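task queued by scheduler; priority normal; single chain, no ligands, no partner chains; default sampling; output format set to structure tokens
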Amino acid sequence: MEVNTTYVLPSDKCVQYTCEEINGQYVTKETKTTCPHYRPEDCEPGTETTDANGCCKSCKIRNICEVKSKQTVIEVNGCTSVQSVNLTFCDGQCGSSSMYSAAANMMMHQCECCQEATTSQKQVQLSCADGSKVQHSYTMVETCSCNKAECVGGTTSKPQRRRRR
């Protein structure tokens, strides 16, 4: 093996070996790829892929993003709904990953969020402390879906030390 060349064994594509010369000595550096958690049962059928190195498996996560609801009293500016309202919201899991790419020498991010796809406006009457009544419009979630989103961050910050006083 020549200096500064990298070799990958066919039997273990998750380890790269690089020959380096340090102070006149030839040293083999071993670099292991850490793959993100992979559970085939969470995958949409037929979407399983392996990265360019043949090391890490990934897939499109089955979207479990759905409309849920909860009974709640709406309160706005001191006025409250007389009865509880059935508020709907999106809840679930969408595919997101953060994986090191040796080819790009950086972290590759894929993010999706469980968000409302269609909504409608509903009206509810609120009673105020002074005895008046006001109409209030609120948003009702009709359907939800997984939508691509920007992955915020990208670097891990170090914990900050707090000063003692």
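post-processing summary
- The domain at 63-148 is CATH 2.10.90.10 (Cystine Knot Cytokines, subunit B).
- The chain has two domains: 1-32, 63-148.
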